[in-house]
């Protein structure tokens, strides 16, 4: 795998990243889940090391290493604790959005702050009546001279409460199809009328912040419109492709960790006077885990490669997301099984992997929606 997709530059990156993560994340990877808090100091350090910047050019503090490097960084972080990566993801997506659709002055003002990890982001799309159907959003931005007045609400928003910049998808023209009447506005934290609530706990990915956002007569300067008015749906679809590859890599990180833990445990755990790895049924489980993981990584890295050579990856990104998330759930579940009773306790990380993996069949577009996209592309 590594020899197919990785260059010398990638190997240098991996070495540096693994050193950093061994020192900064490995010692606290389980504590993050127990305390339910991703330390923001760690996020900032990752920014300083330019791990937020593989898709951003050097002018704005990025490393410009490309999509494969991005997948690699995401996978490595996720092997230890995927919540750290999930906290980073909205910053990657909004950074990408700004770098592709933002004006020069927006890039000057915001992009370096995001790339450096000094400012965190949220991507705010989902609403009460608009989940899978993103074109159903009702949040409205009314034109009022030099500003928009924003009203509506968003739910399940990652980084709600810790983000500095909220990228809000809203309707700016109610008289046309939402696909051409949708825009994106950047709202800075502490803007009057931006109200954040965190009223629930999550099943997994503990440590991330997630909540509801109310927008009550929020005044947003027109200079905070990202891209042209009406271009929000297209820029969202473009950003979704990146999100799907990112989430696939997060899943693959979980699967890699679950397989590794299972191999170690199976070699060490003795029953019937022999290590359980000697039993064919355990070997079969490990083989299936390995085969599925290899396929998931191949789908993800090949989508990343296609992106790097400038091709449309709508189908490939959805394939990777659907398969990698399904694989992570299967691999993590088998990992729990291989660990027996120990796997059901929090003495081993595999129970966390299973709870974390389950998120990815929902967030970033459900598996059903990914498959609908694949079918649509096939039937074109
Ligand atoms: C932890 C977490 C973090 C999240 N972070 C963010 C975030 O940062 N920003 C953001 O905007 N959103 C975020 N989300 C929202 C997430 O993207 C949505 O939950 C997801 O897109 C599904 O929408 P929904 O929950 O409304 O489900 P629904 O759309 O109501 O779907 C319910 C079920 O119906 C199925 N379904 C729906 N339509 C169809 C169809 N046409 N055909 C077949 N089946 C269908 C779905 O697959 C699903 O099984 C997050 C969610 C979670 C849980």
Overview in brief:
This protein is α+β, with helices and mostly antiparallel strands.
How does this structure look, described?
The chain is an alpha+beta fold. Helix 2 (8-24) packs parallel to helix 5 (67-80), helix 9 (232-268) packs parallel to helix 11 and helix 11 (314-338) runs antiparallel to helix 14 (367-379). It starts with a helix and ends with a helix. The protein contains 14 helices and nine strands. The longest helix has 37 residues, at 232-268. Strands 2-3-7-6 form a four-stranded antiparallel β-sheet, covered by helices on one side. A three-stranded mixed β-sheet has the order 1-4-5. The model has no long low-confidence stretch (mean pLDDT 97). A hairpin with a 2-residue loop joins strand 2 and strand 3 (147-158). It has three domains: 2-119, Butyryl-Coa Dehydrogenase, subunit A, domain 1 (Orthogonal Bundle), CATH 1.10.540.10; 122-230, Butyryl-CoA Dehydrogenase, subunit A, domain 2; 233-379, Butyryl-CoA Dehydrogenase, subunit A, domain 3, CATH 1.20.140.
């Amino acid at each position: 795998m590594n020899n197919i997709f990785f260059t010398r530059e990638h190997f240098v990156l991996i070495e540096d990243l693994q050193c950093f993560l061994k020192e900064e994340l490995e010692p606290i990877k389980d504590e993050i889940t127990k305390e339910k808090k991703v330390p923001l100091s760690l996020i900032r350090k990752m920014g300083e090391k330019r791990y937020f910047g593989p898709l951003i050019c050097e002018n704005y503090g990025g490393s410009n290493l490309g999509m494969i490097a991005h997948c690699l960084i995401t996978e490595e972080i996720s092997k230890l604790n995927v919540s750290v990566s999930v906290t980073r993801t909205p910053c990657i997506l909004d950074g990408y959005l700004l770098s592709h659709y933002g004006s020069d002055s927006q890039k000057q003002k915001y992009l370096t702050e995001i790339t450096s990890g000094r400012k965190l982001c949220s991507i705010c799309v989902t609403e009460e009546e608009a989940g899978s159907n993103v074109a159903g959003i009702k949040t409205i931005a009314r034109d009022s001279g030099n500003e928009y007045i924003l009203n509506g609400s968003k739910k399940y928003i990652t980084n709600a409460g810790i983000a500095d910049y909220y990228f809000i998808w809203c309707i700016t023209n109610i008289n046309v199809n939402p696909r051409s009447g949708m825009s994106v506005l950047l709202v800075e934290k502490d803007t009057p009328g931006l109200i954040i609530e965190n009223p629930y706990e999550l099943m997994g990915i503990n440590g991330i912040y997630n909540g509801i956002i109310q927008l009550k007569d929020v005044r947003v300067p027109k200079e905070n419109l990202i891209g042209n008015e009406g271009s929000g749906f297209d820029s969202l679809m473009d950003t979704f492709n990146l999100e799907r590859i990112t989430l696939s890599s997060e899943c693959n990180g979980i699967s890699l960790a679950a397989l590794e833990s299972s191999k170690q445990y199976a070699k060490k755990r003795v029953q019937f006077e022999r290590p359980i790895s000697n039993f064919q049924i355990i070997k079969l489980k490990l083989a299936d885990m390995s085969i599925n993981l290899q396929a998931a990584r191949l789908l993800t890295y090949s989508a990343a490669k296609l992106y790097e050579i400038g091709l449309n990856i709508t189908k490939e990104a959805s394939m990777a997301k659907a398969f990698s998330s399904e694989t992570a759930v299967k691999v993590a579940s088998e990992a729990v099984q291989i660990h027996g009773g120990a796997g059901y306790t929090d003495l081993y990380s595999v129970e966390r992997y299973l709870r974390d993996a389950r998120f990815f069949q929902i967030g970033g577009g459900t598996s059903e929606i990914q498959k609908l996209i694949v079918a649509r592309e096939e039937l074109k």
